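Fold this complex.
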Amino acid sequence: MKRIICLTVMNRPGVLNRITNLFSKRNFNIESISVGLSEHEGMSRITCVVHVEDSSASEQITKQLNKQIDVIKVTDITDQSIVARELALIKVQAVPYTRNEIYSLIEPFRASVIDVSKDSMTVQITGESDKVEAFIELIKPYGIKELARTGTTAFPRGTQRTSQQSKSYSIV
Amino acid sequence: MLQEAALTETKTETYPVTGADLLLRALEKENVEVIFGYPGGAVLPLYDKLYHSKILHVLPRHEQGGIHAAEGYARISGKPGVVIATSGPGATNIVTGLADAMMDSLPLIVFTGQVATGVIGSDAFQEADILGITTPITKYNYQVRSIEDIPRIVKEAFYIASTGRPGPVLIDIPKDIAAGVSDQPEKETEVNLPGYQPTLKPNYLQIRKLTEAVSRSKKPVILAGAGVLHGRASKELKEYAEQQQIPVIHTLLGLGGFPASHPLFIGMAGMHGCYAANMGLTECDLLINIGARFDDRLTGNLQHFAPHAKVAHIDIDPAEIGKNVPTSIPIVADAKEALEQLILQDGKPPAHKEWMETISRWQEEYPYYYDKESVQLKPQKVMEMLHSKTEGDAIVVTDVGQHQMWAAQYYRFNNADRWVTSGGLGTMGFGFPASIGAQLANPEACVLAICGDGGFQMSTQELAIIQELNLPVKIIIFNNMALGMVRQWQEIFYESRFSHSKIPLQPSFVKLAEAYGIKGYVIQSEEEAEEVLDEVLHNREPVLIDFRVDPDENVYPMIAPGKGLHEMAGVKP
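Structure:
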């Protein structure tokens, strides 16, 4: 099953290495990882998407991450009400007679064209992973020349539905 | 008095100071008594300052010996062992020791030299990315980037290494930082680690839950691991076990946490544990794990592990709870604090007369056994003699292999901090150097360095330290002319194809010892053993004894890989 894990970490040298190292040391499968500064000075936010077999494995991941000295907070936000976004840049083959067709696909996905050349155009799409995936599938037949994805970044919504309590890993 | 005060004042206010000065001051503040270190290019600025230092410096003859000695020191003293190695090869030579200390939760502070900051990353002479190499095998590691950070980093490192679940911390110091000069007055530093706050106090509700589970239980056992020793909780463990009348099983690393002579002690469990302990874990209905991590050598096949038991687990490391065995009563806490709370509950002891009788029967019918009639010198007999002649109160330090298991089985520990062994990583070559650290941590004690002929040859060079410091370590070699445990597995699982496990061509260990000015003996019979042990065990001289034990002896009982704890082979017929 897929889990989205959010981390707040001290912005120290080598911290990303510590996190990725832990995933390989503990034999966890990582699908994507995105890192950037957070609202606090000196702290970064990391969003990991991981594939695990069961809930005890995801609990083990959060516990091991939490043990890292540079990690301030770990939350498995998969079961919360969240906003999750990913950005993809897709350079797709586009000759004059396919361009309009591609534009018509772009519109319902609220993607945008950010670069055009003689035989290609570059599309930027933002959204949840599934939406990005669906768009890529749709545009594949035209011939994707280059593809870059950021991986998911996410955090909980301002208001949580009361029925879905946040599932923090804490066992005490 | 006044003069003295004036002197210290001028001393602390002498600026500018170098990075190496700051480092040594920080070590003095932490009351470091001994450093195990090996000099080299990148740590020359540090060694120049050590020239005038009062801290005892022990020079191993290989960095790996130094770090294992520091581990032995840490295990016995309870304080972090301090190690210095130079950059590149010096640093990579301590990697095994770091991994070993990480697995067995031993506090170490390891300083490595590094090439100057300006050339890091240029493949400079004796450069190695030791931060990258050691990240997975240290609790934390640092590279010092500015001289002013040194006091804070050293203070944090000692705090991290010795609190919570202890472990090794490495500090990498580029040469220009150690040699560089700071003209800023040294600031008072506070440990500020928002991401590191170990939970020490147990959750009250879980303590209540466990107390109720105990009172309802009919077949309870306590499994006590090294967490009891790290938490200095032996007294509390004894008090709790006696209050609730719960029998106690030890892991390999926990030995000594509960007195072996106590009527509630069952024995050691695991791959070579005793029948009663392994059956106790299999049959129990309540398993209270205190500071053990359900290692695979203890549990055997997890599918057959404690199938009828409700599991309670007290551990300072939350990640250990539920890692291998599903746990219904998780208690994240320091062992001592949790036990104190449990004792305060003063719950109703379980009604378990039948259970206690069953355990006694197992103990009586299936003890450890060996052929006592044999004409060959049996290693188990030697262990029994060592135990009785040191009245069970020596510090026993072992290497890894058959002799380690015989020591765990036949040396019956009645006190804590008498046992040093490499459990998690199983590092051959660990025992002899670790005994040096153990002796330095407790100079009065009788220290037995129990080694096999294979493992001893991985660190013979450290005989030089014994000679230099005249440490009265008793080096006991169980010599079966083979890598015994490998030979045993080949005999049992590989149809006796002894591939490269026999080493009949050996040096004369006695002459080797003599080359370092240490007295040596070869012993082939019980009578010789009696005579020599009586002579050497109680004097203050180092000695090496080469016991020529039965080369075909195996360690039993034994649980084959993939089998459950109840499927022991080689139990007394």
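The interface with chain A takes residues 131-132, 135-136, 139-140, 143, 145, 160, 193-196, 199, 203, 206, 317-319, 321-323, 326, 330, 332 of chain B (CB under 8 Å).
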